[in-house]
Amino acid sequence: MEEYVYVNGKKLRRGYTTGTCATAASVAAVSMILNQELEERITVRTASGVTVTMTVHAPSFDGLTATAAIQKDGGDDADATHGILIYATVTLLPDQTEIEIDGGQGVGRVTQKGLANPVGMAAINPTPRKMIAQSVRELIGPECGAKVLIFVPEGEEIAKLTYNSRLGILGGISILGTTGIVNPMSEDAWKAAITVELSMLRNNGHSSVILAPGNYGEAFATEQLGIPKAHIVNMSNFVGHVLKEVQRLGFTKVLMVGHMGKLVKVAAGTMSTHSKDSDGRIETLVANLALMGAPLDMLQQVDACITTEAAAVIIKDYGYEGVYQVLADKIKMKTERLLKFKKPAVTIEVVLFGSEDGYLASTKPLEEIKEEWT
User: Fold this and answer.
1) Where is the secretion signal located (predicted)?
2) Does pTM top 0.85 for this prediction?
3) 77, 79, 140, 262: which has the fewest C-beta neighbours closer than 10 Å?
4) Peptide bond between residue 94 and the one before it cis (omega within 30 degrees of 0)
């Protein structure tokens, strides 16, 4: 992997996610057990397939147990976790084959439904869990088990600088990362990169585009709708900006595919969906459920939810899944209205999904959308 990228002529250094650091620490610990010697440097593969070599801190081993730490390096896109040590203690279990992964000191615990992990589980997201398990398994083989404990001594204090408590993750940070690599980009540079991607599609003769607000949206579009990834543009949180760029460049059709937790904000007219700019998800759900005549006790339960996934359980229990169609139609209306005063006219369709229930609603029958866009 190239260590640097160039953004607007500036040379910026890439970094690594907490998930990659946890994986590297786990691999270093296993290597020390197997080789019975200290490790100073360790090489691992990230979730995106990139091979990286990292320095091992505080290595120690004793028989079938070892501990190692990797320093989190956010590159030139540093966040609150930059510079902290991510530790792994691994114990090999020759009498079993299961690999157990848990979080210790400074790794948050999930206390609310609707997140990537169930209530009670350590906040080590699915992709880092998968990479830790795969990397450990490659070293120990199929006939041995292992217990992996990820801990971050500074994690509880650092978590106060994150949104974890608002998401119902208490006691520490989350171990995150869908690709394993942190690519440095300022917000302006990020927007510019999206415009370049849109321009390339338009210059190649496309008058329609699929927009997703993140990796989950891309995955749903490709895996559930069968849309080629090359036709999808990740608009991140910049909904309004990207839609205006779409119109400026001459696109006339848009399909927005996104997780309920992100696009519900657009139903309220919010066109910048980052949590630092807005968070009216639950309020928007409550308002629209109230307009549908939902009972007060249900509205109070939804209002107490931290995530839309938690709210979805209540909505399902009370039989108000029709709210998703209302919201999809409002997203279409609000986004088309944003562009109505300029040319060309842009038609926007919407597909909403949830982590647990999958497809929720769309502004056209799903089969029609698949036929039109694949």
Assistant:
1) none
2) no
3) 79
4) no
